[in-house]
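Supplementary Methods S3. Input chains for the assembly prediction are listed below.
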Amino acid sequence: MINWSTHLLTEFFTAVNAAEGEMVAITNAVERATEMVEAEVGAVVREGKVLGAYGFGPAVPEARLLAVAAGETLLDVIGIGEMYAVASPLGGEQADALIVGRLDEPFGAEERQMLQGMAQVLGLGLRSIRVLAAERHLRAEKERQATSAQTGQRLVESLLTIQRAISARRPLPEILDAVTGGASELLGGATVALLLAEGGPDRRLTVASTCGGEDGEPLHEAAARAAMASGSVLVRPDSTGTVIATPVRVTGEMAGCLVAHLPGGTDQHSEEADQLAAFAQQVSLALTDARTVEAVREAHHDPVTGLPNRALFLKILNRVLASRGTSIDPTSVLFIDLDRFKAVNDSLGHEAGDQLLALVARRLRGCVRASDTTARLGGDEFAAILHDSPMEAATLVGERVVAAIKEPFRVAGREIFIGASVGVAISREEFEESEALLHNADVAMYRAKKDGPNRVLVYEPYMHAEALDHLSLRGDLQRALREGEFRLQYQPLIRLADGAPAGVEALIRWHSPTRGFVSPVDFIPIAEEFGLIVDIGQWVLETSAQQVARWRREFPDLALNVNVSGHQLMHPRFADNVMRALAIAGLPSSAVTLELTESVLMSEPDLGKAALHTLRGLGVQLSIDDFGTGYSSLAYLRELPVDELKIDRAFIARAELTGEDLALVRTIVELAQILGLRTVAEGIENAAQLTALRRLGCGYGQGYHLCRPTDAEELPSRLLTQLVENRAG
Amino acid sequence: MQSIPHRWFGAGQSSAADSAKAGAEAVAEAVGGREPKAVLVFCSVAHDLRALLAGVRAEAGPDAAVIGCTTMGELGNSGMTTGGVSVAALGGDGFTVHTRAAHISESDPRASGAAVAEALRGLHDDHKVLLLLCDGLTGHPHDIVRGAYSSVGAVVPLVGGFSADDRKFERTYQFYGDEVLTNSVVGLALGSDGPIGIGIAHGWRRVEPPMIVTKSQGAHIYQLDDEPALDVLLRRNNFVGTAEEFFDNGRQLQPLGLSRRNGEDIRVIHQGDDEERTVWGTADIPQGALVWLMEADRQALLDGATWSCTEALARLDGLAPLGVIAFDCAGRRAGLVEGGMDEEITVLRQALNGAPFAGFYTGGEIARVRGASGLHHLTLVTLALA
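Predicted structure tokens for the full assembly:
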């Protein structure tokens, strides 16, 4: 969208400049101005007389036009009706004005500004015609005429150059330099500076562009401020010549000043003042245009990343789909969702989150061709349109995206590791809805995410049903939390040395009235995805803490293990939430161990560290769940306040453990002993496994062979049985 | 005895080769035995114009005001013709008709528009319109229309078209009574006690990016974006060849849109010079203007036709149209070649619900209802009478 009024001014200028006599200039100006704003009538009031009246027919309402020149904003004309009228001063000393009147709607700010510019251009033209006429009788007539005509032509050319730069959307500094450069050249190499007012109460003036001066030359700030305060051109002498200051407005507001310094006295420079005013007008238009562009950009672009937003993305996609000849040249859409972005945002703050998004956007752009479109759809979701990309090519780009996002980002002085899941949808049919295509890519992305981070999947129709289910699952989860459909089971942790129960691990269970039993493996990731996990986790913590506090009256040393999601850990109030739950339950913090999976700790080594140290300082213990399945780096064991390692069930899954299995478990146990950590073996299902682990020196165990997860009401009797059996054993 | 309607409108066409016969046939069909107050004649420059006007007069009767002009094609209910005649006739006590003609002076083209506007003098009917038929090759179409508007003002709407000479661009003619004029404007001030509606629509759209007219004079464009204008047009159209080949075989008429508050002011470029690398049309293109190439597909043009008719009829205060005079740009014809013309006529018939219509393919259209500018290009202007 190009600002329609911007370039009309040059067109107008050319028409007025071509006139040789005052009346022709006025007629041309009135007609062009009237047509350009689609007004019905126009006129000029000059020295108290109405000239060039246009559109009134035979009866010109002179008195009413004079009233408009004096400030009246409505113009009632017999036979036409009441019109909106605007009078724009021609500059100079008289109250001369260019007037237009329109029936259908009032004049907007932009139109008024353009009319203002036109009036100034006309005033400039009329004054130079008059000067020219007066000087015709002088000796140097011919020479003078030639010079003046030349100056006029140079002014037009210079304005045209600036006009082109504005229309071509050249960078603003370049346009402003063209203005000061052009003005300086026209004024015989005078110093010309553009001062723009900054925002804020003191409206400091800064030099936006300058030409022809030497460093250290005074800025003539006083003159600029005076011109801005009066809103009109100011010509004042100084010690070395004359300062001309012409105010610059942007949609009516005072925005700055164009200042020139010329040699000689003030009486020689009235024409130069007019010319400088014409350049100031160009600055106004360039700034107005830039602001309009910015507004349009804001409406269509995401301010954080500078990428097109969802609305623009869909528009572009629509256009691409519509212009496509056949399905021979398929268009692919990638839907990119970041993994673990929310955690960064929650723990490091929105500013860091925004920085990360901007960096992601840059990497995304690097993964596609220049002709392809990338967009930020919202939150941590991005998308890309790939032209003429069959499935293989699109998948390759998707993999490139995943690889690029996997590389660490440096934000707020830290290394951040995130991932991306990518869904790909390819237009197959001749007529494809942009929304539908994007939705399919979205569905494929969900499916990819479900399989784990950093995957790329191409949409298949069956995914749609899955996605629907996925969405309804979210609704069901919200209801489950609200309606109290969750409950807890408890599985004892048994001290292998004597078989005594040392603690219980709280395990969440969901029996949905519509779905039946839903495994945590299925619903926890979705709760995490939709941000429900913090509330669910808190419920688990509060409920189990209260339960264990009650049991501790009978079993005073009973401890509680609770699983914590990475999403909870990143929550800024995590430590507070934990301590509050324990305080309400009356459970000592030393009785609580939080279990975190190795992959969560590894993927965000920095995130949540502070919270864990706070909690550790308050006595809460930390356990690494599924130990041994994650990365091989063990550095974090030194850095984090870990108390316990839970050996993943994968190591002891075989009914009869092989020598190799045993060697691995022994390594872990020995490592834990060196670091002074407890070890818990998970998934003990038979006596052989129990014996082997006990022999290896593993401290604690869990598993069906020892005790199944049990409802709260049955647990005390189980614990008693366990104690009794072991005493017996 | 047949009763004479208070206001009537008729249309007729002829493809007869004999000019006198063609004129007489078309008028007879339009008049249908009634006594016309005004007869508008649109015909090909290929006819013997004096003989044709004699045929018109014979059927129209001695008192009818006759105006008309040569065309780039004629249109009416029976279809579109090239080399034919199309006639609109109106009469009845409800209509008042005054006519004027003026020569277009090279030094003061505005005066012709203002002079013809004098036809409105003494016209006191409730509803008025000034219809102008102007020579399309003077190079000053804006000035003529501005001249008329400066005299008439916003009180009375303007409609009309610019005459053409098929596709020769050599000399076009205007008819005023029994005279054949050239380089002239003829005006018909029409008063009516029934409503008058005017419709304006095109159907063209911009092709990005825009260009700046960096050098132009009158209707000649020398440079676009500092580059020879012909080179730019050929490149933007992916055309390799001479200017003549481009305008004859490639793109007969190249529309350029000037940026305006509510869209574009369209100019038609129809010729170029291989030596100078310049291009030109029939109306001035101001230096410094920002222009777009314009494009249209057939459907958009047809929709434009429907819209123009709908708009004109909507202004008839709910009355059924007696008939419509259409000023259709020849450039639209170029965009509707190969069967599209028939489609357009079908669209007009449907949109006008069977009401009679007559008109011609122009070298520029005139319509001013709102605002001050009345000159259009590539537009269908319809004048509906009720």
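Residues 511 and 517 of chain A are 4 Å apart (CA to CA). The first helix of chain A runs from residue 4 to 17.
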